[in-house]
Write a structure and sequence with these properties.
By secondary structure, the protein is mostly beta strands. It is built from 4 helices and 21 strands. Strands 10, 11, 12, 13, 14, 17, 18, 19, 20 and 21 form a 10-stranded antiparallel β-sheet that branches. It starts with a helix and ends with a strand.
C-alpha cells in the first residue's frame, strides 16, 4: 500500500512541475510579444548618415587635341584623326598661349614617347628623340620645308633656336613613316605650321620679363584683303644671366660666367588666290641668335675643367619656300609647284688665356653669307583628296 501511495505522489509532482513550467513559458512569451509590439509602434526610423562617394575624373586621353580634329601629317592630306591609324599629338596655338610656352622644346616636352636633350641653358644645342630612335631619324618640317641641318655631324635639326610666337600648330607623328617621308623618318615626323593672316588688319604686341635677366618681346601684323592674306612677325628673346656651370667644378676663387643668349626671329607668310583654281604662297623665316657659354678645357686639365673665359656661338637660320597651287576637277586634284631654300650657318669662337680659336662649320656646299649651306629644291606634287596621297615627281637641286 505504501509503495503505491509514494508512486502516485511522485507522478502528481511531475505533472505539477510540467504544468507550472508550461504556464510560466506561455506567460513570458505573451509579455515579450506585447512589449515588442509596443516598441515597434513607437520606434522612429533610424536615419543613417549620408555618404558621398567621389569618383576620380577619367584619365586624359593621349591625344586630346587631335581626338576631334583634322590632321595632315599622317597622309599629307587633311584627314579626320579618327580615320588615322598613326599616333598623333597636336599642339595648337591656344595650347601654346594657355601654357605660356616660349620655345618649341618647352611645348614638345609634354608629348608622350618623345625625349628632349639640351646642352646648357636657353639657346644650347637641343635634340629630339622619338620612340628611342636617333635624333637624325626625326623628320622636321616647318610649313612643309625640310629643315634638317647638314652642318650638324648627325644632320639633325637644332630645336634650341625655335621660338613659338608665330606658330599656329604642331603635329607630332610617332612611329616609322619612311614610306611617306623617306628614310630619315624612322622615329616619326614633327610638322610645324605658322600663323596665317585673316580678317581685318590686326597688330599684336607683347613684352614680358623675368628672372635671369630674361626679356621676351613680340610684335606682329596680320590680316587679309580680298584674296590676299599676309602675316609678319618679329620676335626677340634675351636671357642675360643663366647659371649653368656647377660651382663645385670651378677652381677656388674662380668666378662663374653665366650663359647669355639672344635670339631675333623674323617671319612672314603671304598667300594670294589669283583664280578659283590657281594660288601662290610664300613663306620665309630668318633667325639670328648668339649664345655665350662656358666650354670645357680638356687640353690643360684632366679631367676637363670649365674654361676661364667664355665662348661664343652664332647661329643663322633661314627657311624659305615659294609655291604655286593648281587645283583641277573642283579641287579633287591638286598640283604643288614649289622652290625651297633652307640655309644654316654656325660660327663658334672659343677663348682661352693664350689663344682665340675660331671655328666655322658647314657642309661641302656652296658658301652663303660667309658660312652655312644652300639647298634649292624644286618639285611637283600631285594629290587626290579622296584617295591616298601620290607623289608624282620630285627634283632636288644641290648647287
Amino acid at each position: 500500500m505504501l509503495p503505491q501511495i509514494a508512486a502516485t505522489r511522485r507522478s502528481f509532482g511531475c505533472i505539477g512541475r510540467v504544468f507550472v513550467r508550461t504556464v510560466a513559458w506561455a506567460l513570458s512569451m505573451f509579455l515579450c510579444t506585447a512589449s515588442f509590439a509596443q516598441d515597434a509602434g513607437s520606434q522612429q526610423p533610424i536615419q543613417l548618415p549620408a555618404i558621398s562617394v567621389t569618383t576620380p575624373p577619367p584619365s586624359r586621353p593621349e591625344n586630346t587635341a587631335a581626338s576631334n580634329s583634322v590632321v595632315v601629317s599622317p597622309t599629307t592630306l587633311p584627314t579626320p584623326s579618327t580615320q588615322s591609324a598613326s599616333s598623333v599629338t597636336v599642339i595648337t596655338g591656344s595650347d601654346i598661349a594657355q601654357q605660356q610656352y616660349q620655345t618649341v622644346p618647352d611645348a614638345l616636352a609634354t608629348v608622350p614617347g618623345l625625349n628632349i636633350v639640351q646642352t646648357g641653358g636657353p639657346g644650347g644645342q637641343t635634340s629630339v628623340f622619338l620612340r628611342g630612335t636617333n635624333s637624325n631619324h626625326v623628320k622636321v618640317l616647318i610649313d612643309g620645308i625640310d629643315v634638317s641641318d647638314p652642318s650638324n655631324p648627325n644632320q639633325s635639326f637644332d630645336f634650341g633656336q625655335l621660338l613659338t610666337g608665330d606658330i599656329a600648330r604642331i603635329e607630332v607623328l610617332r612611329g616609322p613613316q619612311s614610306g611617306l617621308y623617306g628614310s630619315d623618318a624612322i622615329g616619326g615626323v614633327i610638322s610645324i605650321t605658322t600663323k596665317q593672316g585673316s580678317g581685318p588688319p590686326a597688330v599684336t604686341a607683347m613684352a614680358e620679363g623675368g628672372s635671369f635677366q630674361t626679356l621676351n618681346e613680340r610684335v606682329g601684323l596680320s590680316g587679309s584683303q580680298g584674296s590676299f592674306n599676309y602675316a609678319f612677325n618679329i620676335q626677340h628673346w634675351y636671357s642675360g644671366s643663366t647659371p649653368v656651370t656647377p660651382l663645385n667644378e670651378l677652381a677656388p676663387g674662380e668666378a662663374r660666367n653665366n650663359d647669355k643668349y639672344e635670339n631675333w626671329t623674323y617671319s612672314t607668310k603671304l598667300g594670294a588666290s589669283v583664280t578659283d583654281n590657281l594660288g601662290f604662297n610664300v613663306v620665309a623665316r630668318y633667325t639670328d641668335s648668339k649664345l655665350g657659354f662656358t666650354g670645357e678645357d680638356s687640353v690643360d686639365f684632366s679631367p676637363p675643367a670649365p674654361e676661364v673665359l667664355q665662348s661664343t656661338q652664332v647661329d643663322h637660320q633661314f627657311f624659305g619656300r615659294g609655291e604655286a597651287v593648281w587645283s583641277l576637277f573642283d579641287g579633287r586634284f591638286k598640283n604643288f609647284f614649289g622652290v625651297t631654300i633652307p640655309m644654316n650657318g654656325t660660327t663658334t669662337s672659343t677663348q682661352t688665356p693664350t689663344a682665340l680659336h675660331h671655328r666655322r662649320r658647314w657642309p661641302r656646299r656652296r658658301q652663303i653669307w660667309g658660312s652655312g649651306f644652300n639647298t634649292i629644291g624644286a618639285g611637283r606634287q600631285g594629290s587626290f583628296p579622296d584617295k591616298p596621297s601620290c607623289l608624282a615627281s620630285k627634283i632636288r637641286l644641290n648647287p
